[in-house]
Amino acid sequence: MRILTLTALLFLSFFTLSAQVDKTAVEAFITSFAKEHNKTEAEIRAILDGATYKQDIIDKISKPAEGTMTWERYRKIFMTDERIEAGVKFWNEHKEALEKISDDTGVAKEVIIGIIGVETYFGRIKGSYKVLDALYTLGFGYPKRGKFFRSELEKYLILAETEGLDINSVQGSYAGAMGYSQFMPSSYIAYAKSYDEGTANLIDSPEDAMASVANYIKVHRWQTGAPVTTKAIFKRDIGKLNKQVLRPKNSLSDYTAIDIVPEDQIEGNPKATLIILESGEEKEHWFGFYNFYVITRYNHSKMYAMAVHQLGQAIKAKVEAQ
């Protein structure tokens, strides 16, 4: 009786996991991909048969940790002495490439470094999920964004062939982002650059990753030499502010006119927005300029952009003090 019960439980568990995947969508994907890319359905089915549905991926994307974090907690993850020292080491090890990439693109070195530092701890934490499993799980088991992840799966199959990636072994985040720069497959195809004009290898080459990060930021209209952010000082109590958006719409002078002034000297009268970060019971107020907005094109989070900026600045200060 015990054996029968265990068998029944195993069958029920298998059935439950299988039921999480939209098999009709899988078959439609196979048919469409094979037709569009001159492949046989058997080839694509064999690849997808090798993918595994992961319930913990669904759990993580349904309740992302960042959504429950204050800026104080978020900042403490990235602004550690250990990560800053790792950034200094990474900068020094790849100094020549970093300087050339920055000169060629106009993107500040500390922004390139800050992004790689926040994304993967300078390559130490690239993700532990097979990219194929992640995109399969989300493409066919997460209806809320299934269309997006099926598109990414399509791009991943193309990318694996053009870049010679082992489709069954490349690991990344639970969302399918990969390499030093945590590019999704579509971003890999659109923005990846090779530092030495060869094949862009974002999985193993820090130089290619830096070149690709800089290219992404440049394409999103980074303004060379322009400010990113500075603290906003309230010289008097302000009642109710209009809802703030990440993309600056007002001029800095619009804020200074109501006695909200920048802590640092800012040249000219650039467009600005007010960034409000919850930090425990307190709130931090910052001006976000257009370059701050550009960083949020990499990850649409004001906390992410601020962490990138502050980590990059801290690393730059230590490098310059050497």
UniProtKB/TrEMBL annotation:
Biological process (GO), any one: peptidoglycan catabolic process
List of catalytic residues: 119
Residue ranges annotated for the Transglycosylase SLT domain, each copy included: 24-313
One example GO MF annotation: peptidoglycan lytic transglycosylase activity
Protein origin, superkingdom: Bacteria
Keyword annotations: Signal
InterPro entries assigned: Lysozyme-like_dom_sf, Lytic_transglycosylase_MltB, MltB-like, SLT_2
Listed PANTHER family: MEMBRANE-BOUND LYTIC MUREIN TRANSGLYCOSYLASE B
Segments traversing the membrane: none
Protein name (record): Membrane-bound lytic murein transglycosylase B
Organism: Roseivirga pacifica
